[in-house]
Amino acid sequence: MRVDGLKAYYQTRWFGITREVRAVDDITLRIEHDEIYGIAGESSSGKSSLIKTIAGAIRPPLNVVGGTVNFDFGTRKVDLYTLKPEERTAIRWKHLAYIMQGSMSVLNPLRRVRQSFIDFAFRHMGMPMPAFLKAVEDHLLRLHLQPGVLDSYPHELSGGMRQRVVIALATVCRPGFIIADEPTTALDVVVQKSVLTMIREVQREMRASILFVTHDMAVHANLTDRLGIMYAGRLVEEGRTRDLFRNPRHPYTLHLIRSLPRIGDAEPRQGLEGTPPNLADPPPGCRFHPRCPIAMDVCRVMVPPMQALGGGHRVACHAVTEGTVQ
Amino acid sequence: MKTYAIYLAKRLLQFVLVVFIGINLTYVISHATPIDPVEQTISALTSFGNTSPEAIETMRESLRELYGMSGTPLEQYVSFWSRIVVGDFGPSLSAFPTPVSELILRALPWTIGLLVVATVLAWLLGNLLGGLAGYYRKNRLLKAMGLIAMGLHPMPYYVVAFVLLVVFGFLWPVLPISGGSGIGVGRGFSFDFISSVLLHSLLPALSLVVVGLGGWFLGMRALVSNIVTEDYVVYAELGGVDRRRILTSYVMRNALVPQVTGLAMSLGAIFTGAIITEEVFGYPGIGSLLVDAVHAGDYSLVLGITSVSIVAVSLAVLVIDLLYPLLDPRVQVE
Amino acid sequence: MLKIFRDLLRFNLEFAIGTLIVSIIVGLSVLSFFSPYPPEDIYVVAPDVPPSWEYWLGTTSRGQDVFWQMTAALRNTLLFGIAVAAISRVISLTIGLVSGYMGGMTDRVLMSINDTFIIIPLFPILVLFYFVMRDSMSWALLALIMAALGWAYDARLIRSVAMSLRTREFTSQCIFSGMSPRQIMTREHLPYVLPIVFSTTLNNMNWSIGMEVTLSVLGFTDINTPTIGSMLYWANQHTALVAGVWWWIAWPVIAVMLLFIGLYLLATALNEYIDPRSRLSRMGGAT
Amino acid sequence: MSGADTALLDVRGVSRSFWTGGLLSRRRIDAVKDVSFTLTDARPEIFTIIGESGSGKSTLARMILNGMNPTSGSIAFGGEELTTIRKTRDRMRFMSRVQPIFQNPFESFNPLSKVDRYLTMTARNFTEARSRAETDDASDRALRKVGLSLAEVKDRFPHELSGGQLQRIAIARALIPGPRLIVADEPVSMVDASLRVAIVNLFKDLRDELKVSIIYITHDLATAYYISDRIIIMRKGEVVESGDARAVLDNPQHPYSILLKDSVLSPDVPDDDEPKTIERDRAARSH
Amino acid sequence: QDVISSLPRKETLILENPEGTIKNAGWFNIWAINAGGQYTGLQQLAMDTLWYIDPEKGLEGPIDNSLAAEAPKYNADFTEMTVKLRSGIFWSDGVEFTADDVAYTVETQMKNTGMRWGPILSLNVDSVSAPDPQTVVFKLKRPNSRFHALFTVRFNAIWIMPKHVFEKAPDPMRFDFNKPVSLGAYALHSFDPEGKWFIWQRRDDWQRTTLGRFGEPGPKYAVYVDGGPPDKRVIAQMNHNMDVVHDVAPEGMFTLAKQSKSSRGWFKDFPYAHPDPTLPALLFNLQRADFQSKDVRWALALLIDIKAVSMASYRGAATISAIGIPPTGTHPDDYHIPMQDWLKNFELDTGKQKIKPYDPTVGKQIADMLRPSMKEQIPTDQAAIDKSFGMGWWKPNPQAAQELLQKAGFTKRGSNWYTPEGKPFSIRVMVEGESRPVITRAGTMIAQQWRQFGIDAKTELAQGTMLDRRNSGDFDTLISWSVESYGGHPDLAYFLDSWHSQYVAPAGKPQAPRNYMRWSSPELDGIIEKIRGVGFDDPRSIELGRDYVKLAVREMPTIPLMAYNVFVAMDDTYWTGYPTAEDPYANPVPNWGNSRYMMVRLKPRGE
Ligand SMILES: Nc1ncnc2c1ncn2[C@@H]1O[C@H](COP(=O)(O)OP(=O)(O)OP(=O)(O)O)[C@@H](O)[C@H]1O
Ligand SMILES: Nc1ncnc2c1ncn2[C@@H]1O[C@H](COP(=O)(O)OP(=O)(O)OP(=O)(O)O)[C@@H](O)[C@H]1O
Ligand SMILES: [Mg+2]
Ligand SMILES: [Mg+2]
Known about the structure:
The structure holds five protein chains of five kinds. Chain B is mostly helical. Chain B has helices at 2-32, 37-46, 53-66, 73-84, 100-135, 140-152, 157-171, 191-227, 231-238, 243-268, 270-281, 286-295, 299-327. Chain B is built from 13 helices and no strands. In chain B, helix 7 crosses helix 8 (191-227), helix 11 crosses helix 12 (286-295) and helix 12 runs antiparallel to helix 13. The two termini of chain B are 16 Å apart. By secondary structure, chain C is mainly alpha-helical. The longest helix of chain C has 37 residues, at 66-102. Chain D has a single domain (42-72, 88-285), classed as Rossmann fold, CATH 3.40.50.300. In chain D, the strands form two sheets. A six-stranded mixed β-sheet of chain D has the order 6-7-8-3-9-10, with helices on both faces. Chain D is globular. Chains in contact: A-B, A-C, A-D, B-C, B-D, B-E, C-D, C-E. Bound molecules: adenosine-5'-triphosphate (2 copies) and magnesium ion (MG) (2 copies). Chain B: It is a multi-pass membrane protein. Chain B: Belongs to the binding-protein-dependent transport system permease family. Chain B: One of its GO terms (cellular component) is plasma membrane. Chain B: Residues 108-324 form the ABC transmembrane type-1 domain.
């Protein structure tokens, strides 16, 4: 999958107040087959917005302002935003599945889980109903869910189970590309771990690509192959997860990783000062400069370009470019 | 199942409570009226014809005895309740000695027939069209309907009924404007009778539907336009779920839940509707019976009618409440 | 507040139309103070004159100028609606907030009463009241009774908001700031339900005015006070419709229809303003 | 203040159960089962309660804050049984010594009120401060303890402040009465990593400088390890393990504690050739 | 479309039943208390009794011996009345009518004082006997020269019960008499259980009824229907769906006259309405302090501009009367015309001056006032004007009114009047509302005129409570009638007897009918007692009647206004030969018992 120069803004006009929130601002990235690509960043840095744009799940007020999203599903290559609506619908679930943020509420509360499966997946599977249900049950079993959940209403399931049902729903058609937006927040650590394990398992099995978003760095550290860091609507750093954790180059990434407390380590740590930027009126130049400990004059006026550092590691920081950092 | 029984019991208790409060309220109000049914009867009897004053006194005594209006207020209240629990409202005072229950039973089918049918029809149509209008926001026809509904909905029912009456009964006299069936049409399961009843119910039913429809239409449309932004609808759309399926099983189905409660509430308005509809269109039924009874100072009939309507409405609400868990599996016992 | 009003006016067509209509009506009712003769008087002008230059809206069979009659009627009708709305708002706010905040037994008792009021058939009760009060059923008394009967539904609405407010963290924060329940209800929760109160006010006015019109037309109120309902009452008394004095009926009906539509539009616009979700769906068709 | 050996908070065998469920399935939930612990006044500490979600942490916190009665067992604060604290005066006295901090900084303040109102109200209700100047002064002093000042906060609405600021204002407010105990229920779960550290650092300062005991409720083992002195681990309402925080977390004994610790994903990436935890699990599973 | 599909319209007469919807339609026992409808055709077509008296001329004179073969015969001291009955009269079930039926009627009701005429019969009758099938003898408990009036239909009377039917009922009070057996020329055909219509069919043996003497009744079917509100009745007649409308608002009548060629009223032209022998008046509650002085009452009378009241209430279509006798039937000849001179010379002392308040030209003034808009519809002939609009009335005289009020101790401060006690002089004018629109309008006008004079006057609507409040004396003033007469006969005892002070109830207690103003006057009592002593047809009773009028003018216990004009609208699309002012053979007002005489004169159109 390739994303080029993607811009998506929330454009709201409400009783005379026009606001443009630049939630996704000029983002370019690639995701290969059979890898998990993670996106991290502060709350409201535009992660969900990016993901919605990539999944084609935009609705007003979120509008795509520029850029392209291209998928390569092996058998066919598509540009999501030039596709006819019917074709887009056809691709969905068969090739491209999406796990929304807040997946607690994505299931119709008045429909049994079984019916949701039929609604979403039946027509893609091309098999008679009994066989289809069997396939679904098998799939659920793989996710350690009893077939009994099919007869439940969503509210009868615990958070973890619901989350797993949604994952099952997204993966039952074995799509080549899965987009997941914070599928494990709101789960406690024990459940979270098992869900993540499952995601990994499914991915490996299907050799699918996953775009995985969360602001929990620990999850990234353990799950993703590559990682992109977003700050205020921009991608500020990208690279192999291990490289990024070991050798973060952008001051924001650096700080993010340094501030993580660990069990067995009671070293004092420092929080990040200042407030996150308002995306309706982002600071000029590098958007991180008001909070950046090493901000220079150039940061205040010029947007730093993405700089390749080798090994797929890219960063957008004047300091790195000029070598003032490390 | 046990919890359902507890719920049932609680709901029943509430039902009894509401009925009890309601009937007491009407008892108190109706007994506070200065109208004395005996005097009322005497006035009616003597306003024509020659009756001497002494004769009136004799008559007053006989009537007082006949109407059973003796005893202290407390005794009357107790005997009222002891009779009412077995469904005996006593004889009507203005149609003595015909029992109140007989009068009510005669009137009830008309009211129920017309109003319940019209209310439910308005509900069904309004929700269907409103749901469609909320989902297909761009459809011209539905938009136009929305405008009409918007204009009609706030209108007081009387005004609408009156305008309809003028239009179809006077300016363009094609529909009967009074009565429940034609003059001289015999009762029975005959074509004549049924067609006559249907014809006579057209205008009142139309007025009820026109007014009711608008409210449901707008309510449903608003609900649906909220529901389409719910995560599960968005997700279903992203998942490429059949649009008709989304409309029916995701949008309408979920919007229906509050609307059913609304239906229960609007059943409460039936008896209000009954009075106005029946007065405007001269339709027979419980509403005109009530107005008559009030005019005649016949409080046993008034109490009978209000009690029946309170019980009926509370019962309707109760039934809908009890069915609610079927409609919405999420409902919890408090 | 003023800014919200201006924004609504500028950017919400419904609100603008509603405001326009309601201001016309209010304007008319203010004009009633300049009426050349008392509105109750009859035979002050030639009867049955159709709309003309001299009598814009015609005159009634009772020898009243429909225009001046209508201004007085609108004034009284509006005042009636406002009175009912104001009183019933106070009741529903009190009951709703207390019940929602207190919960428990208080809530259950209050809601039982509330449910009774929702369920009992209103109109028969009103008619009954008319007979108890008999002929001393004045305008103010009717307003009081209507208010006493018309709060229940809104109280439930307010209660449900208050209930959710109670579980919000800031309410606990208030408790631990040492605020008393009364302070919390009036200072912290009231602002939240005010928008609801506002938009239900308009609906309530619609309801009470409609009730008043209906009751008057059926002759169950004080017909000496000119209101839209009593105007129609008198017109019916004079078989104005079949007698061809259509202007006696048409103008008040049009006026009351406008009033209702105006109030309704205002209520919907406000509702929309309050509800954040419909704000979003306004931005462009959802599908 | 009470003597050195008086317990500040004494939780003895506290249990609490609820009835829940849908219409057709009703069941009892023992949210808290027989929990006991003691905090002493002499040695302020950060006492952490950790556990899976639904393990009864918040329920326990509410009982300590006297917002709910235990089904059995008792809680005493400063030697006084909480159940005896019912009168408004007693409650106020209790609240001046025990204060809460809530989970969601954005939710802890009424978006329609200015944030300094909470500070002022707390100052007025729990301290001697009466006049505007006095309350301002009290607020400012409290704010300075958390690295803010009244000038930054005055007349601002919650939406004008960042989550970190808001959470600090909430803490400042809790400090105004000069409490002995602060109960913080998941104060950092809604904020992102960098803010988290800032807030727990503040807790440390409170303990060390103001000698306030803190009950810190969290899911996050890492911050618990980082700041707490003692810890209890809860599961399904029961305390499964307790003791010195570092000791317990370094070397958990109870199977659940072990599972919990194992489930915590470490933000450390392993070496290139070593599989990640999740990979390990996956591999283990597929066999 | 046709209203009636099941009956041949050409043979059917449709009349309005002003009772509206009968809530207990299946009840025909008219002798029990009013459990069902009465004017559903029941009293008009199915019932019969001894005599009928017409408010107008009648078919063969105002008095018709119906079941009785001749006028009643009293003994000298009026303690016994003997009645000879007709023979050859049969009930609709074929049983012959005899004196036993009459005796049974009386005895049954005397036994059951809860029955309609039970109390009055048991008060008067000692015993009743039927010495032979054609003779009934009533022995009375005390002298009563007008006992026969109980069996004389003005509006209604004691109807004769079928002994052979009621005998079989265990309790005559709880017997519904469905289906009714009739003595009249019509028998019940069918009825609406909802009480909206009743259909009566001409008896095949109509000759064997008392109406048979006048020939065959025209309509084969007579249908009494609920007319609904006034506009619906007008619409119904315009669509030829209602042949006789009982009453509409004046405007409705004008509309019908203008728009429907086939409709007409009692008068061919203005004022259309049939004046009932009933006199709406403003009744003072004489037990209230403010109205105890006749000066106050006169003052209030002199503040009324009857022309405006006539316009406001009937749009001018009223027949005014200054005296307490309806200006209808034969009354003008007996009272109004002979008394003109007395009225013209009547003097009133205001305390400051003496005035002659009577203005004999008011009727003419009304006619003149109406003529520009009504053109040739308004008669010019003085006799016709007198008949249509009435003769004279009191001239408005605010100056005299002021003097009279001051004489009575009232004071004017600013523009408002105060009672002698210093309270604002406030008067509520009670009216009945929608059920009597013209009365309501008259009240509104009168209140306005008083208000303009500085009295706090207002109408008070007593819809549905009017009868009750009237009887219990719960009013200041009231527009209603305390005067009802025969119209076709000069005797006034019908109402006047009940004005005797012996019947006046103390304040707060219910007042027996007619003397609702609770007037007690020894002078009046004297007149009444004298009338009791003279016979029904004795010319002396007219003299005594005039004495009553003079007394009432001086005392002004009520302010007489006008005849109760009923806008009966008759449609001759299907039927011709209705009674009219030109041919006043019967009362067309269809709820009156004597409207039955109309049937024999009605002919299908085109015959
Ligand atoms: N519907 C909307 N209208 C206007 N602005 C919006 C809307 N939704 C989100 N935003 C704004 O867009 C920005 C990015 O939001 P987004 O949800 O993409 O963040 P995120 O990184 O996913 O945050 P989180 O970690 O909290 O999920 C935020 O500043 C947010 O306030
Ligand atoms: N008011 C209540 N009524 C019914 N059940 C309740 C109530 N409060 C809590 N519970 C139940 O008690 C159990 C413990 O809840 P509690 O909120 O204390 O857990 P927690 O440990 O704070 O969980 P989390 O980590 O999700 O905040 C849960 O199963 C919850 O559903
Ligand atoms: Mg997000
Ligand atoms: Mg919790």
